[in-house]
Amino acid sequence: PQRVLSGVQPSGALHLGNYLGALIKFSRLQHEIPTFIFVADLHAITAWQEPALLAAQTREIAAAYLASGLDPKVAAIFPQSQVRAHAELAWIFNCVARLGWLDRMTQFKEKSGKHKERSSVGLYTYPVLQAADILAYKATQVPVGEDQRQHLELTRDIAAKFNHDYDRPGFFPLPEPMTQGPGARIMSLRDGSAKMSKSDPSDYSRINLTDDADAIAQKVRKARTDPEPLPETLDELAKRPEADNLVGIFAALSGRTKADVLAEFAGKGFGTFKPALADLAVASLGPVTAAMRGFMDDPAQIDAILKDGAERASPIAEATLAEVKKIVGFIGA
Ligand code: TYM
């Protein structure tokens, strides 16, 4: 059986990259395949989170899920920490994954920076917990942005090694990342070589899901570009990272391909393209932002939705965990 699973960390404001790389896909998939979408609060505390802020941001992510069209009666929406099996399975996977595999993880290198010895141990084993998130549901498809590909490969390595070591071919499926489409790698609006991220100090580098129409329009207007008109071909576009990024955003927001967008705008300058992009961004994000605010006005409702989602997700994850414990040789499972 197919299952979709994904999650977002409540570690800062959601931005356009999260929306186009991940959220927008969740609501499209939920009607086709059983879908599990969680708020990765266990992952968030691998870096320090102010407790009150963590709680608020957890609800904000849930509000964004709902605002982007996830239906809590269709998909299971829940906080990772409310389904114990994630953390318990992660321990077992810590004993499957090899140090050499984790040593290669580029995200750890980026996030730990120059102070590796001061990073939490959790930050290091972060991808192992991610594998547990996915494999607890035997998920087959994982809609994520490009930056999560390496973590998905590690998940596949863990699944394959578990299946092999315990001689259970096919017990865990090898999940596929879903990174198709122009939204999978949205870059900073200030620098076409850096990805749009929560941690960029410049707020002008990203469009936040909480930005109002004026802020969105202004950020698009101020986005870095070159002076040339838009080219005819994707090859030429690929040589101009900032232009490529804006065309990609336009394509992802409108559900079109970059080639299709170029066909409309080739030969036109940014004086024409940017206002069109700003209008499109405001028209598509405005309703999401407004809906998100509406949900955030009722935290009790969000908490009830998350609790219900956890109650639906738990039996599935628990069943996998029970099988795993038995396979491993733990008695009483
Ligand atoms: P996180 O919280 O950093 O990001 C959430 C999702 O947004 C995508 N994303 C982007 N997509 C396109 N362009 C960008 N600039 C951009 N920035 C972020 C991410 O790829 C992600 O899909 N480790 C995950 C959370 C996680 C998870 C999981 C995901 C934990 N367990 C299990 C899938 C399955 C993360 O840190 O995402």
Describe the structure.
A motif ('HIGH' region) lies at residues 10-18. Its EC number is 6.1.1.2. ATP binds at residues 9-11, 17-18, 145-147, 186, 195-199. Catalyzes the attachment of tryptophan to tRNA(Trp). L-tryptophan binds at residue 133. The chain has 333 residues and is mainly alpha-helical. The chain folds into 2 domains: 4-179 and 298-328, 3-Layer(aba) Sandwich (Rossmann fold); 203-293, Tyrosyl-Transfer RNA Synthetase. 55% of the residues lie in helices and 6% in strands. It has 14 helices and 5 strands. It has helices at 16-29, 41-44, 51-67, 85-94, 99-103, 106-112, 121-135, 149-165, 213-222, 234-238, 241-254, 258-265, 270-296, 299-328, and strands spanning 4-8, 35-39, 76-79, 141-143, 176-178. The strands form 2 sheets. Strands 1-2-3 form a 3-stranded parallel sheet. It has a two-stranded parallel sheet with strand order 4-5. Strand 4 (141-143), helix 8 (149-165) and strand 5 form a beta-alpha-beta unit. The radius of gyration is 21 Å and the shape is globular. 42% of the residues are buried. Tryptophanyl-5'AMP (TYM) is lined by residues 5-9, 17-18, 21-22, 40, 43, 130, 133-134, 142, 144-145, 147-148, 151, 184-186, 195-196. Residues 5-9, 17-18, 21-22, 40, 43, 130, 133-134, 142, 144-145, 147-148, 151, 184-186, 195-196 line the site of tryptophanyl-5'AMP.
